Structure formats: structure tokens, C-alpha cells
Amino acid sequence: MNLWVYNLREMQRRPGRMLLTFLGIVVGLAAIVATRLTLSTVDRAYRDLFEGVAGKPALEIVAPGQSGFAADLVSGLEHIRGAQAVLPRIQGAAALVSASGSVAVPVLGVDRTGAADWPVREGQPLAREDDALLDPGLANSLHLRPGQSLEIWAPAGSFHLRLSGILQPSPVSAAAGGQMIVLLACAQRLFNLPQRINSIQVLLAEDADPAAVHTAIARCLPAGLMVQPPGMRGTLARSTLLSAEQGLSALSLVAFLAATFVILNTFLLNFSERRKQIAVLRSLGASQRQVLYLLLREALLLGLAGAGAGCISGVFLAVGLNYLMQKFLGLTLPSMKLSTSPFVLAALLGPGVSAAAACLPAWHASRRPPLRELLPQWAHREEALPCWPWQTGLFLLVLGIVGEIVLVVGGLSDTLRRHLLIPVVALLLVGGVLALPLVFLPCLRLLGALPLRLEGRFAVQQLARYPGRTSLTSGVLFLALVVAIAFGQALRATLRDLQHWYRQTIVADFLVRGAMPDSSFTLAPALPESLAEELRRSGAAAVDYIAFLPAEVETQQVLVLARTFAADRPLPLDLHEGDETSVRRGLLAGEVVLGTGLAQHLGLHRGDRVNLNTTQGPCKLRIAGTAVEYAGGGLALYLEWETARKLLDPPGVHVFLVSKRTGDASLGAALHAFCAQHHLLLQSNADLRSLIEGMLNRVSGALWGLMILAFAVASLGVVNTLTRNVHDQLRAFAVLRALGLRGGQVCRIVVVQALLLAGLSLAPGVLAGAGMAYAIQRASAAWTGSPAPFQIDFRLIFGVCGLAMGMAV
């Protein structure tokens, strides 16, 4: 018997239901594809930011804080077995002045022999000491051509270079939105490193053992130098994105889970509606296996079509997410690479999950006795809801709760905790949906006992008549409610904490810098410290410094925030351990303040000692206190400026914090004139606050967009269920209309069913969402070390409940 034609005909008979289910699959898979493509692009940008400018060597030798060192300190490396070439380099960031504003650009200084490794597409290669090469994308965006003059700000001051050529396009040169190549002598002038370098790139032979070469090099290095993979500094940059990555991944998972339950509900409806047709097929000789394969083929066809459309939609969605992430990071992302893994995953999940969701309904449908299904009294009867779904749900809930407890109080590493968060959330969500009938069905029976109007009684009776489809549809809405409340609460709490942190740490009236850094402060141009005196002559009451220095603490990559701390002004730290007086005294005495995230990661507290790798070698510093810090993903520490100068030798000042005298309204105009004359970036405190809030709002927009997708998928399930309910009630409605029921009353019955589906999901959804929000807050506190009091956001809850009711209707 050829059943393919039957498959297609049955799918065409229900175009509306199949379209809604198809859209659910598309939305769920598109969210997964888009988030994976976006996160892959961001990860590649930060990895290539260092691997790319290094020419992709195997190993690099650097000093903490990007400080310089004499090349002869590491002589003899070329004789190490497996080392093919030893290349002296200078790596840093500069502010490139353009008509549209200054931009931060990575700079690579190479010797004359290494300059040949950078072929030019247009112009001439490096010849003179003031020559520079630019990435083609960067040159085009700034409308630069060979022969033009380039003005840049670097740690040694303002310089004019000649653009001698445009680099050949390559994946390396595309990293981080472009780069500048100069000769080593020029880089030494720019970064104030006479007769010094700040990086040595070691290229390995093809047959070399990287671990053995790493060990051999480490034995040869003097104190204050370390060997590491070239992309190691990108690790800290990528750690700042973990929260956003987890939010995007979790919400894409939720959209897909919602789509899965919609698929299950659709096939339950389809197979229940086609009982008589399946019984006829069995009577005509179709075996149980043929019927099972027949029904599973429909699921596979739908899943394959949804996977194809989901992949295409995911690419378009990824373009939008890439744009939002680019604005948030302040970094030009490389062009999106369509790697195969997201599409392979979607191609497997689409038909796989569709078939899995249809497997149980198809198995039951294929094993029903044909004779019984052909009897009139069985035509519209739905089997009682079995016990195993809610029992499985309770089991999954217990597993999820245990997992959450382990995440909060267990002795797991941060990496393992972050990897376990998404599976734990999935267990809680799936368990909650499966266990929902324990709450939902008793509520329906309670409503049925109340003296309701005619429309309400009919609506309750219809929902109670089909507990399976009703519970699944309500479960999808429950899923969307829980996630929107839990993640929305966590997101809004994070934004409040960030605003409080910003007000505590950035207390200056104006900020002066060369160009805006990226959000991880990895690409931050430094300015000469001597500019502070000129800023004071402009009328500033005080000028403080901040520098962002990469370093290493106990083998952990960290961000050192070196800054000045005036004795006559409030301490600009959001302290968690320690009081202002003792912490200030400790900082001025050479002690350190750890970010709460780093302190939690290392298990250290005030009064302990931390081992910081410095230019003189490992140095044990006493912890004066801990403070809430979001820079570097919380893996940050504070040093007083003079202490940092001794230990890490900062290349310059990344930000000048300028404070005005009380009542002085002229400082802004004076600074504006000074910065315009010298082509520096001036920001008021309000400007920077607006910029930060705009960056955060973009990420918030992406997360809220995925939440709305989850609600959209849930609404598809409601439409499916109501459509089937109306179909089952056609005869009853006709009889009621003949007895005098008006058309408006029929419409109200359907609307009341939709409101009941959503309304009965609200209470368990709100409670579960608030509980999950509390669990997320506790888990976040366990990672960041900065517990904040848990507060329920009632405005958010009312808004989400209103959205759920609106989507249902």
C-alpha cells in the first residue's frame, strides 16, 4: 500500500493547523541557529583580535600589563627544539583620528624582515619609519587611500603617519574590524618603548610538540615574563560576555521547548481526529507498523520543512543579533561565517524532535482496536490523561531542584557551573510543564462547581472534556510565563545593579580619552600621562587616571584597574568587604581590592593575600577589601596608580576623570575647546551614562525579543487547541443556535476558553517564575560574590501576565 499520497493529502486537509505547527518549528529552530551564529561570530572576533594581529603564531611571550622588556632577555629561544622562528613584536591599541570621530585600532609593530609577511593590495609596502598599512575594511570605512596622512594618539602622544598601503584582505586582517601595521621602530616611538618590545612571537615547526616547546620556553624565561597561546588575552574579553551568552542560549532553548510542546499537541489533535480513518486503514489490511510509519512520516516531513525554513530564518535573525551585539561591544565584528554546526544541529533537531513528539501519539494510534474505533460512541472520546506524564514531571522537577542547589552551594568550578545552568533550567521547565495537570485540572473542576454564566459553563466543560490537549496548551503558556518572569526579573535586577555600580565608581564630571574602547576594555587606546597637567590648566579641580591592564592572578586571566584615589574625595568603589577608611589606607599602602567575582572565584576575602604576576615576578599582595565590579566579567582587581606603576608599568592613561569646582560652569566649554583642538574624545558623565544604558538596552532588546518569540510560539498552541475545540463543538453550537443562542454568545464561549487557558496558567506560572528568578539570583550571587536582596518586580509580573492574556486571545 502506497501511503505517501495519504500523508500529503492529510497534511493538506488541515492547512491552518499544519501552518501554525510549521511556524512553531521555524521560530524555535531560527532562535537556535541565530544565537549560535551570533555567539560564534563574537567569539571569533575576540579570538582573532590577538591571534590575528600576531600573524597566528603558536606561542607568545609577554609581560604582565602589556609592559615592555628588552629583547635580549630571552635570547637563545631559536635554539629550542621545535621553535621555527622568533619574531620581536609590539602590540597595542591606538586612537585613529578621522572626520567621523576617533576609533580604537589594534597596532602591530614588526621588524623589516617580518613586514614582507603583510602583502599590500594597493599602494606600497612599509619602507620608511613613519609608514603604516591599514586593513582594507577599516580604510574603506574611514575613506582613506594610500599617500594620505594619518593622525593617531598613542601612549607617547600625537603622531602623524603616512598611509603607504592597504593590506590584502584576509581572515587575519579582518579580525576585530581592522588593524594597523607599522615598523618596529615606529611602534617603539608610539608606545614609548625605546629599545624594547612587549611581545615575542614564537612560530613552531610543523612536527613540534606545543606542550614541550611551552615547557622549554618557560624554563628559559626570567622573572616577569610568561609564555602563553596568542589568544589567551582574548579569554578575559570573552568572559565579559558569558551572561549575555547564557541569556541568549537559555531563551533560544525555551523557544524550542515551546515549539516541541506545540508539535506534541498538534499530533495529539491530529491523531485523535483521524481515529476513524486509521481504523479504516487497519481494516483494509494496513499493519500496525505501516500505520506507525505512516504517522511518523508526517512528523518527519513537517520537521524537515521546518528545519529548512528555520535555517533560512535563523540567518536573517542572526544578522539583527549581530548588529545589536556589535553596538553593545563597541567592536566591529567580522563578517558572519555560516559554519555548518548550527545548520546540522537544526537539520537534526527539526525532524528528530518532530518524530520524537509524534512517536507516543502515533504508537497509541496504531495500536487501537479498529472495531472499537469505528463504533459511534468512541468517535469523539478522548482517553483519560495517564499518570506517567505528571509522575515524570515531578521526577524532573526534583532533579532540577537538586541541580539548582548544587549550583548554588556545591563546590563546582565556575566553568562547570555555567555549563550546567542551561540543562538545569531545561529540567525545571520541562518538569513544570509535565506536572502542571496536578494544579490545572483541579482548578478546572473547581471552576465547574461555581455558578457561572452560560458561556463560562460551556467553556469549562469543553476544556475539562479534553484534559490532554488542555494541559499541553496551558503548559506552553506556563513555559513562556516562567521564562519571561524569571529572566526578565534577573535582567532588570542586573540593570539596577549596573546603574548603582556606575554611580559609585564613575564620579567625575567629564571623561577624556583617545577613543571609545570595546566593552571588555581589551582594545583601549592609552594617552600620555602628561596630558593631565594641560587638563588642570583648563580649570579642572582634579584629574584622576584609570588604566585597564591585562594580568594574571593564580593562573587566572584578570583585568587590573589601575587608578588614582584622592584622599580628600569619596572612595570611588562599590565596597562589599571593608570600610572606606581602611580600604583607602590599604590601597595607598600598596594593597589590592578584589572584584567580588574574582574573590569568589579564588575563595579569598579581606585580609588574605593574592599572588599577582608582575614585571618583577610573582608578588603577594594583601587584600584590603572587595568591591562589586562588572569590568572583565567580574574578574578584576584595583591597584592604586603608583603601585601599578611599580608592579605593571602601565603604558599610559586610558581615561582621564576630570572633576570641576563647585559652581564652575565654564569647565565644559574649556574642555570641549581643548579636546576639539587635540582631537580627543570628551564625554560628560551624563553622556557616558546614556551610552552605557544604550548598550545595555540593545542586549536587553535582544533578550526581550526572544522572550516574545516564546510567547508567539505559545500563542500558536492556543490557536491549535481552540480550533480543534470549535470543530468538536460545531454540532453543539448548531443545536444551541437553534434553541436561541446568539452568535455573540458563541464567540464569547471561544474567548472564555482562551482566557481560561491563559488565566489558569498565570498563578502557577507567576509562582514558578518568581521561584526561578530567586534561584537565578542566588546562582548569580554564588558566581559574582555580590549577593543583593531579592525584590519581586510587580510591574514586570503584571506586564508579562497582560502579554500572556493578550497572546492567548
- CA distance, first residue to last residue: 43 Å
**Count of individual helical segments:** 25
Shape: elongated
Largest sheet: 10 strands, mixed
| Quaternary structure state of the chains depicted | single chain
Structural class: alpha+beta
Mean pLDDT: 79
What can you tell me about this protein's structure?
- Helix content is about 55%, strand content about 15%.
- By secondary structure, the chain is α+β, with helices and mostly antiparallel strands.
- The chain folds into 3 domains: about 5-45 and about 240-495 and about 690-809, no CATH class; about 55-230, no CATH class; about 530-680, Cathepsin D, subunit A, domain 1 (Beta Barrel).
- Strands 11, 12, 13, 14, 15, 16, 17, 18, 19 and 20 form a 10-stranded mixed beta sheet that branches. Strands 2-3-8-5-7-6 form a 6-stranded mixed beta barrel.
- Strand 2 and strand 3 form a beta hairpin.
- Helix 2 (about 15-50) runs antiparallel to helix 6 (about 235-240) and helix 24 (about 745-785) runs antiparallel to helix 25 (about 795-809).
- The protein starts with a helix and ends with a helix.
- Mean pLDDT is about 80; it is low at about 170-175.
Task: Summarize the helices and strands and which ones pair or pack.
Layout: H1 4-13, H2 15-51, E1 59-62, E2 83-96, E3 103-110, E4 120-123, E5 131-134, H3 136-141, E6 149-154, E7 157-167, E8 180-183, H4 184-190, E9 199-204, H5 210-220, E10 226-228, H6 233-239, H7 242-273, H8 275-283, H9 288-329, H10 340-366, H11 370-374, H12 388-409, H13 414-435, H14 437-448, H15 454-465, H16 467-505, E11 510-513, H17 531-537, E12 542-553, E13 556-563, E14 575-577, H18 580-588, E15 592-595, H19 596-602, E16 609-614, E17 617-627, E18 636-640, H20 641-647, E19 655-659, H21 667-678, E20 681-684, H22 685-728, H23 730-738, H24 743-784, H25 794-808
Parallel strand pairs: 3-8, 5-7, 13-18, 15-17
Antiparallel strand pairs: 1-9, 1-10, 2-3, 2-6, 2-9, 4-7, 5-8, 6-7, 11-19, 11-20, 12-13, 12-19, 14-17, 15-18, 16-17
Helix pairs in contact: 1-9, 2-6, 2-7, 2-9, 2-10, 2-22, 7-10, 7-13, 7-16, 7-22, 9-10, 9-22, 12-13, 12-24, 13-16, 14-15, 15-24, 16-22, 16-24, 16-25, 22-25, 24-25
